[in-house]
Amino acid sequence: MTTPSTTRPTVGDTVPPLRVDSVEADKIRIMALVLQDPNPIHFDLGAVRSAGLGDREVNQGGVTMAFVMNMLAAWAGSRSAVRTVDCRFSANVFAGDAVDVGGTVTAIREVGEELLVDCDVWADRGDGVRAIAGTATVAFPS
């Protein structure tokens, strides 16, 4: 994992953003197999068209949320530092879409030897449509 931020977070700080340049159709199909997700919108373009969703595979919502978790883990230096993530899914991400992931620190509290940092988090498609919005808590050493 990466080195955690060396600066103590403060309310209003921006979480270092993450950009996924292009969600790959092959990876969407592989994740459908790995997750045993039978929904054909992840691997069958005919099903995508029949559902009125266009002509590109639909990324799994959990994979898009994993982009948020990856951003938080990179910032904190460890996946174990990500304590909670609570997201609402509001739009589909499709094969070929870019995804911009970001966050803003909203609160900080010390609990024992940890600094718990609450954040608003999001994932936007490259066209600016918000696909995920939510909150997260990340732990840093105090």
Short description:
The chain has 142 residues and is an alpha+beta fold.
Number of helices: 3
CATH architecture type: Roll
CATH class: Alpha Beta
Give me the secondary-structure category. Answer: alpha+beta
Note the gap between the termini. Answer: 20 Å
Describe the structure.
- The chain is an alpha+beta fold.
- It has a single domain, classed as Hotdog Thioesterase (Thiol Ester Dehydrase, Chain A), CATH 3.10.129.10.
- Helix content is 23%, strand content 37%.
- It contains three helices and five strands; from the N terminus they run E-H-H-H-E-E-E-E.
- A five-stranded antiparallel β-sheet has the order 1-3-4-5-2, covered by helices on one side.
- It is elongated and about 55 Å long.
Features:
37% strand; five-stranded antiparallel β-sheet; alpha+beta; Thiol Ester Dehydrase, Chain A; elongated; 23% helix; 142 residues
Give the helices and strands, then pairings.
Blueprint: E1 14-20, H1 25-34, H2 45-50, H3 61-76, E2 82-89, E3 99-111, E4 114-125, E5 130-141
Antiparallel strand pairs: 1-3, 2-5, 3-4, 4-5
